[in-house]
Design goal:
Length: 367
């Protein structure tokens, strides 16, 4: 059954976006505008000139509270600083709105669980923007795993490497709640690992602040332990020569992928996505190599990459609201990521491996 829309009008779902910083401008606004049936109606931002230059048909509203008070908004998208996700999502749900929250879902597992329960009680859709599920290289890896091309996966290594030696004056790199690389890139990598291999038995996290003049962690290495597999997740802000994006070893072969998915850079360069994707959108030119036994020797071949389509997330949100389709990222799935974020921080503080405990995914449901 389709979830009811809060607004009484007929037509496109009216979307209100809170925040027009990097995430709002680079990801949410272009992807929302790309999907037929969604209309970017209003943006809560203090920089009206920048919003108007990009989206002249969207109304600029001076505060999140004023946007939440608008009865004609069907879906509220929260792309504000991490420490505001929980209070804004709670206020939006309390106001009867459907809600999308940028990752990380919240700052704590308790907050994530509370929001999931509130959405359930109010009968509202609550979804979390884990857009990296729709990167072309990850779509390729999921297909390799589902088809058994590599056999049983025994080792997964995933890295987000960047070279940004200068510390910028922004909340993501500041010593504030929700700042630092573990909160920024950790959710992407953890969500991908959970999608591929499920809930781990244990986690070990090492965090560091390596840049001159830095204020928050800018490097991490996390290890997830599974009964018959190991996962290594890494990120760095001082990697001039990046490592492979993925290294995957299985009982029947290995796959190595270089380079990041191109969709983010394409939007930054001025490209506008569309749904369905235009030919060539999300085409990844990075090296993709598979090595498997052939006869008595190992052979390495190029493996074709799927094209990425992060717009598919918002297309799925539209279908969930209009046609009762599944929530593309449920609160339970996003809360599982927050559980590992929280447990990882404790592991780093105590400098030891911590058991992950029972899987919260066992009770996963769509809200």
């Amino acid at each position: 059954m389709a979830l009811p829309s809060p607004a009484a009008h007929v037509g496109d779902l009216r979307v209100g976006l809170i925040g027009y910083g990097y995430a709002g401008r680079t990801f949410h606004a272009p992807l929302i505008a790309a999907v037929p049936g969604l209309r970017l109606a209003a943006v809560a931002s203090r920089d009206a000139a920048r919003v108007n230059a990009d989206w002249p048909d969207a109304e600029v509203i001076g505060s999140p509270q004023a946007l939440l008070g608008r009865p004609d908004i069907d879906l509220v998208v929260i792309a504000s600083p991490n420490d505001s996700h929980y209070p804004l999502a709670r206020a939006a749900l309390a106001a009867g709105r459907h809600v999308v929250v940028d990752k990380p879902f919240t700052l704590t597992l308790a907050e994530a669980r509370e929001l999931g329960a509130l959405a359930d009680a109010r009968g509202r859709l609550l979804s979390v923007f884990h857009n990296r599920r729709w990167d072309g290289d990850f779509l390729t890896l999921r297909a390799l795993a589902e088809q058994g091309t590599l056999g049983r996966i025994v080792h997964l290594e995933a890295a987000f490497d960047r070279y940004r030696p200068a510390v910028r004056d922004r909340w993501r790199e500041a010593a504030v709640p929700g700042g630092g690389l573990w909160f920024d890139l950790g959710p992407h990598l953890l969500d991908q690992a959970l999608q591929l291999l499920g809930w781990p038995e244990a986690i070990t996290l090492d965090q560091a602040l390596l840049r001159d003049g830095g204020h928050a962690d800018d490097w991490f290495l996390a290890r997830l332990d599974y009964p018959a597999a190991r996962v290594v997740l890494r990120a760095s802000m001082l990697a001039a020569a990046p490592s492979p994006r993925f290294v995957v070893h299985g009982t029947a072969g290995s796959w190595v992928k270089h380079g990041l998915d191109p969709q983010e850079e394409a939007v930054k360069a001025g490209a506008r996505p569309a749904w369905p994707p235009a030919p060539g959108w999300g085409a990844d030119r990075g090296a993709s190599l598979i090595t498997r036994p052939r006869g008595q020797a190992l052979h390495t071949d190029h493996w074709p990459l799927q094209s990425g389509s992060q717009m598919a997330y918002y297309a799925a949100v539209r279908e969930a609201l209009c046609a009762g389709a599944p929530n593309p990222v449920t609160p339970v799935e996003a809360a599982a990521v927050m559980a590992l974020i929280e447990l990882g921080r404790r592991s780093a503080r105590e400098r030891r491996t911590l058991a992950a405990g029972p899987s919260p995914l066992a009770s996963a449901r769509d809200y």
